[in-house]
Structure formats: structure tokens, C-alpha cells
Design a protein that fits this description.
Layout lengths: L1 H8 L3 H8 L3 H9 L7 H10 L4 H13 L11 H4 L34 H22 L19 E7 L5 E5 L13 E4 L6 H4 L9 H13 L3 E4 L28 H14 L6 E3 L14 H18 L4 E3 L9 H12 L8 E4 L13 H15 L4 E4 L16 H16 L3 E7 L17 H13 L3 E7 L10 E7 L2 E7 L5 E4 L6 E3 L5 E3 L5 E4 L4 E4 L3
Helix pairs in contact: 2-3, 4-5, 5-7, 10-11, 12-13, 14-15
């Protein structure tokens, strides 16, 4: 079928290989049926490039499942050549971690109903089905074929135990008072805090550092690394540019003279050298409500800022202009184009905006977006480290979430970041109250959502993560998600079910279940634990 699609499109093997970022020999073997791709996504990529329709993709999936692969190791496509072969997560139950401390002994695994390859294929088929339906259920202005699937599933993964990033729990401050969160987090990001370029430099050569001084000092005293986000061109630097939505007269256009931009970057970096941890070089670089210049200009601004920061504060992390609107084909294409222009070559980290289509959707839906972002970077020829630095422009317009959904979604936002293997996740926001999930209004006590996030941080702080998975592909009941960790040789797991309530067989050695309210409950008399939308921690009894 792949050969028929290729011939119908008129592509040679060389052309198709170049478009698919594979070797010619791999494409030839797949189209001739000499080798069956280990993952359906490889076959799907070839078919989509050849213009396959939804029904043809469905037929292709069935053919792929029916194909026999006696020796999966024989499949030597380009993905494996580049060291990107996915590993299936060990099935069903927790396994012991090496070390002198006794870990959890797994219960005997039940016989698999079908090969892991078919289980992974089921995920691909679910993704495919959602793609075909999403165009009729969401009005976001993108073509269904180009849009990421609004899905709540993701392929499992396994890796050597890796320390949980110590900056994963981040908050964007929506306050200029200098107050900081009173619950434990890792880092703060400054935006919507009256620290835009136009606030700090109201006139050429004139700076007002009062708010930024107050915020940076307070964060430093609290031991919280600071990300300073740039944006909002002053009206004096671009008097004819479009206005932003803010009340400070700022413009969405780049400055008429880019020397004004590099002078501002130099002034900030020089004043806060060693006190600001990272610089996000623009907010929403692909959204005209924040930046209406060309991507070519944005790349030039990025290169100029990078040169300044390397000279003035070389220890600071440089975050490329963040990209939002990624559920829309236009927004994703802008990210890819910025990559093609080699914009990411001038940064240490790429900033993207991970969010659900609506705040009430399960956070796991963001993993569909994660996959599309990865593919866009691959097409653009960049593979940067990733931080999620915010949300959608429309977030203040969305309805508040009630408990327990608010707390569950807040906690799982950060678990999704761990699942996606992002280095930092910045929740929007801290200090505000006109948003779907309120963490802590400035001057008030933390909400339950904030305290649950703090408890999740306590669970994973100092651990090493080594796998995440969901459903049958990870050897779990349908709907159950799991991430697994190691702490000093002791195996831990966090499990949850976004869609309902399940019973999970407790691994040997688990006698109690830890909850986000810092309580424990016993394992059921039948040897199972209840799994709901609120994640729980499984491990040896404290």
C-alpha cells in the first residue's frame, strides 16, 4: 500500500526519503515490505507525505497490525540509526530498582494478550481517530490534517534513571508587589508583573528599575531562580507600530532601530548579572498580539541579544522567543520556520506554550501537542532543550474549575511535564484570581491546588525518573497513567486515571498509598488500590 501511495504521488525514493527525514534504503525497505516499521508512526509519516486520506490511513493501520514481524530487531530504519528507537515500558507492575535497600518486588506478570508492538499501534490508531474527528468538534481555525490531535494518550517510554529536573515546578508571577509564593516551588517567571520593556524604559536612555529591583530581590531572598521575559516595545522605539493589549502604550512591532533593543538587553543584563537566572527573549513570538514583526527580524533580535548576554552575563540561560498558538497550524508553522531560519542556534533553550484546548480538558491532552512540537522541530532541523513558559492568550476568559478538578489538573500539569521530559514547566499564574485554576492570590493563603502541587514536588524532589506510560501499552489497565521513580534504590510510582476510577493490583511490598493531602490509606483487602484523577504515590510504607 505504501508503494501505491508513493507512485500515486509521483515521488521517487530519494524525494520521499528527504521529506520524511529517513534514509533512501529505509524508505525502500518499508515500501517494498522487506522490513515492517516497529512503530506505526513511521508508516503513517510516509503515507501522509504521499497525501493519504483518513480512510487510507485507517486501512494502512490494519495492514500494519496484521503484518508479521518475526524479528523486530531486523527493522533498521533511520530512527534507530539516529539512536531514537523507543523502548516499551516494562509491563504491568513495579519492578525492583538495583541497590542495597529492598525495593518493591513485582507481582508475577500476567500473560500479554498481544505483542507490545500491537499495543503501541493501538495508541497510533487512537491518535489517528482523534485527528479525523477533531476538525468537527473544535473551532480553532486550523485544518484538521495539520492540527495536533486533541488526545489524552501518549506512547510509553523507558530510560536509564535520570534526576528529576530541579526547575520543573515553576510559576509565572502576576504581581508587582514583591511577594513570593508561600508554598514550595522551584523557580519564578516574570510576566504580567509590570516588567515589560515599556514599563522599564519609558524613554530612550531613561530607566525605572523599581519594580524589577523589588521582584528580583525578593526572589533571590526566597532562593527562587528568576526568568525575565522580554516583550512590549516602548512607543518611543516604534511610534507607528500596533498597540499591544496592555495599558502602557507598548507596541507589538520590533523597534525601528534594533540598536535600541540590544541596548536594553545590555542594560538589564548588566544590572542583574548573576541575579537573573534566564532571559526569555520575547513572549509569544508567533502571535501578532505580542509580536507583529517578521520571523526574520525576530531571529536577528535573538542573535543580537545572545551576543550581548554572552558578553555581559555568560552564565545566564538564553531562552528563545516563546511560541504559542501551537494548536493552530499557523502557529506551529511559525515555530518550524523560526527553526529553519536557525533562530534556535542562538539559544540554550526553546520556550513553548503547553496548554489544553480548554482549561477543563485533561492536562494529558497536552502530550498530543508535545508530539507535534517535536516533529516541527525535527522538520526545522533543531533539537533544543524545552521549557513550557506559559499558556494561551484566552486563559482569563475561561471558566473557573471547581474542586477536585482544579487540584487534579494543577498537579497533573506538572506530571505531564515530567512525562514529556521537559526541563521546566511554568504554571500561569501565581498572584492572580481571574483564571481557571487559582494557586494563591497575592496576599492570601495558598489554595488546595497549590498545596497539592507542593506535595507532588515533595514526592519527586531528589528522585530519578526512569519511565512513564499509560494503558495497555504500558501494561496498565485502560485509562491508568503511571510515572516511575527511584529514590536511593527504592522504587516509587505515581499513578492516576484522568477519566474515572480504576482498581490497580498493588505490587508486592506496597501496604499503604500516599495521598496529596499528606495522608495514607491501606491497600484494599483484595490487594488493589483505587486510582482516580488525583494522583497517588505507591511505595514502601513510610
Amino acid at each position: 500500500m505504501l508503494t501505491e501511495l508513493k507512485d500515486r504521488r509521483g515521488y521517487s525514493y530519494e524525494t520521499l526519503a528527504r521529506k520524511a527525514h529517513m534514509s533512501r534504503s529505509s524508505v525502500h525497505r518499508y515500501c517494498r515490505g522487506i522490513v515492517i516499521p516497529i512503530e506505526f508512526g513511521t508508516a503513517e509519516r510516509i503515507a501522509r507525505l504521499c497525501g493519504a486520506h483518513t480512510r487510507e490511513l485507517s486501512d494502512l493501520y490494519r495492514l500494519w497490525v496484521a503484518a508479521s514481524v518475526p524479528d523486530p530487531e531486523a527493522a533498521t530504519g533511520e530512527e534507530e540509526k539516529e539512536g531514537e528507537k523507543k523502548e516499551a515500558a516494562p509491563a504491568l507492575t513495579l519492578t525492583p530498582a538495583p541497590g542495597p535497600t529492598p525495593a518493591l518486588d513485582p507481582a508475577p506478570p500476567r500473560p500479554a494478550a498481544r505483542p507490545a508492538r500491537v499495543a503501541v499501534a493501538s495508541i497510533a490508531f487512537i491518535l489517528l481517530c482523534v485527528v479525523s474527528l477533531s476538525g468537527s468538534t473544535h473551532s480553532t481555525g486550523q485544518s484538521p490534517a495539520a492540527a495536533p490531535a486533541a488526545t489524552a494518550t501518549a506512547p510509553p517510554w523507558t530510560q536509564a534513571p535520570t534526576p528529576v529536573p530541579n526547575g520543573i515546578f515553576g510559576m509565572t508571577l502576576n504581581s508587582s508587589t514583591g511577594a513570593m509564593p508561600t508554598f514550595q516551588i522551584d523557580t519564578v517567571r516574570l510576566w504580567d508583573s509590570r516588567t515589560r520593556w515599556s514599563n522599564i524604559q519609558p524613554r530612550r536612555g531613561v530607566y525605572d528599575w523599581s519594580i524589577l529591583d523589588r521582584l528580583v530581590t525578593a526572589a533571590n531572598q526566597a532562593g527562587l531562580p528568576v526568568v525575565f521575559t522580554m516583550g512590549g516595545t516602548p512607543d518611543w522605539a516604534s511610534p507607528n507600530g500596533p498597540h499591544t493589549a496592555y495599558d502602557d502604550g507598548s507596541r507589538t512591532s520590533p523597534p525601528d532601530d534594533l540598536a535600541d533593543w540590544t541596548a536594553f538587553v545590555s542594560a538589564v543584563a548588566g544590572r542583574y548579572r548573576g541575579r537573573i537566572d534566564a532571559y526569555e527573549l520575547w513572549v509569544m513570538g508567533n502571535d501578532a498580539r505580542y509580536f507583529s514583526g517578521s520571523l526574520e527580524t525576530l531571529v536577528e533580535m535573538t542573535r543580537g541579544a545572545k551576543a550581548v548576554l554572552d558578553a555581559v552575563d555568560p552564565e545566564a540561560t538564553v531562552v528563545c522567543p516563546s511560541m504559542g498558538r501551537l494548536w493552530e497550524a499557523e502557529g506551529m508553522r511559525a515555530l518550524e520556520r523560526f527553526s529553519e531560519l536557525r533562530g534556535y542556534d542562538s539559544c540554550d533553550v526553546a520556550g513553548v506554550k503547553l496548554y489544553q484546548r480548554t482549561a477543563s480538558d485533561p492536562p494529558e491532552q497536552m502530550l498530543g501537542l508535545v508530539g507535534e512540537i517535536d516533529r516541527a522541530f525535527h522538520r526545522g532541523g533543531s533539537h533544543p532543550k524545552l521549557w513550557s513558559t506559559g499558556t494561551t492568550y484566552d486563559i482569563p476568559l475561561q471558566r473557573p474549575l471547581e474542586e477536585p478538578a482544579a487540584s487534579a489538573n494543577a498537579v497533573r500539569f506538572f506530571l505531564v511535564g515530567l512525562y514529556a521530559r521537559y526541563q521546566r514547566m511554568y504554571f500561569y499564574n501565581w498572584g492572580g484570581s481571574k483564571i481557571p485554576i487559582v494557586m494563591q492570590p497575592d496576599g492570601q493563603h495558598p489554595t488546595r491546588a497549590a498545596l497539592y502541587v507542593e506535595e507532588l514536588r515533595r514526592w519527586v524532589h531528589g528522585t530519578r525518573i526512569h519511565s512513564c506510560g499509560n494503558g495497555v501499552a504500558a501494561g496498565l489497565p485502560d485509562g491508568v497513567w503511571q510515572c516511575r521513580f527511584d529514590r536511593d534504590g527504592v522504587e516509587l510510582a505515581i499513578v492516576w486515571n484522568p477519566t474515572g476510577t480504576s482498581r490497580l493490583k498493588a505490587p508486592w511490598g506496597v501496604t499503604a498509598v500516599r495521598h496529596l493531602d499528606d495522608t495514607t490509606s491501606p491497600v484494599g483487602t483484595d490487594g488493589t488500590v483505587e486510582v482516580t484523577a488525583l494522583p497517588v504515590l505507591l511505595g514502601p510504607a513510610p
